[in-house]
Design brief:
This protein is mainly beta and 258 residues long. It is built from three helices and 16 strands. Among the domains are: 46 residues, no CATH class; 102 residues.
Length: 258
């Protein structure tokens, strides 16, 4: 009873947590039921004191949709909203993307999309890029409506398997995508229009990571043999020769701009 009261007090002190919170509503019913049924004037909390109490910690539990898929269901990817006022996350389970409200823990909607290779929120969380083995798709979320998005654009690869997808998020200018397959590397613009193909040379290894400068005039590629190469986005060619920065030809796994 003490724990129920503590949880109740914690909940009513944070009204924003109460939205569509089934756990709180059930807790409220239990407390009201026990209060009404206690007609002997006994103080249950006084008769059963809570000792060695320190503080509370809220553990978030999400809707049952994450568990009902059975033993074959597993989360293969997650994306959190980057805009503070959005408060949602996306989870991929068996080629279905679920959108959850982080405050109410409510399932807002779900839609089918293969995101086995990549899932990236961008454009202020208004758009979503997903990639399967051979198709990259862009989805556009509706403004002010919580319903599955519409597909904005797509590109299918023939006899190639997508490995990684990179985006110039946080840079100025139009959105640019770098798609690395098991055979080649491509640069796409805004709605997946092919801009060019990047050929770095077999002696430098395969491209493992990509990043952009602040105004998206240059792209930087890291390779499996430890080389860094700078790409001119205007002329679609490399600046000079790639240079090696790791010992023993270790692969480049991340490039950060600051």
């Amino acid at each position: 009873m003490h724990l129920l009261v503590k949880k109740y007090e914690e909940a009513i002190s944070n009204p924003f947590k109460l939205k569509a919170n089934r756990e709180f509503l059930m807790l409220q019913k239990i407390l009201l039921r026990d209060a009404r049924g206690n007609n002997k004037g006994q103080d249950v909390q006084r008769l059963c004191p809570l000792t060695t109490w320190h503080s509370t910690k809220r553990i978030e539990v999400y809707d049952d949709e994450l568990a009902y898929l059975g033993k074959d269901g597993h989360i293969s990817g997650v994306q959190m909203s980057s805009e503070p006022h959005r408060n949602f996350f996306l989870a991929v389970i068996n080629s279905v993307i679920y959108k959850y409200d982080l405050v109410s823990k409510e399932l807002l909607f779900s839609f089918r999309a293969k995101a086995s290779r990549e899932m990236i929120l961008y454009d202020g969380d208004d758009k979503l890029c997903v990639a399967s083995d051979d198709v990259i798709r862009l989805w556009d979320f509706y403004d002010k409506k919580e319903q599955p998005p519409e597909m904005w654009s797509s590109h299918e690869f023939q006899n190639e398997t997508i490995q990684r997808v990179f985006l110039n998020e946080g840079s100025k200018g139009t959105f640019v995508f770098v798609v690395v397959t098991d055979c080649k590397c491509y640069i796409f613009e805004e709605r997946l229009e092919v801009r060019c193909e990047v050929n770095i040379g077999a002696q430098y290894g395969t491209i493992t990571v990509a990043a952009f400068n602040a105004d998206s005039t240059q792209a930087y590629f890291g390779t499996s043999n430890g080389f860094i190469a700078c790409w001119d986005m205007k002329d679609n060619e490399f600046y000079g020769t790639p240079f090696q920065i790791t010992k023993d030809s270790l692969p480049i796994t991340a490039i950060s701009r600051f």
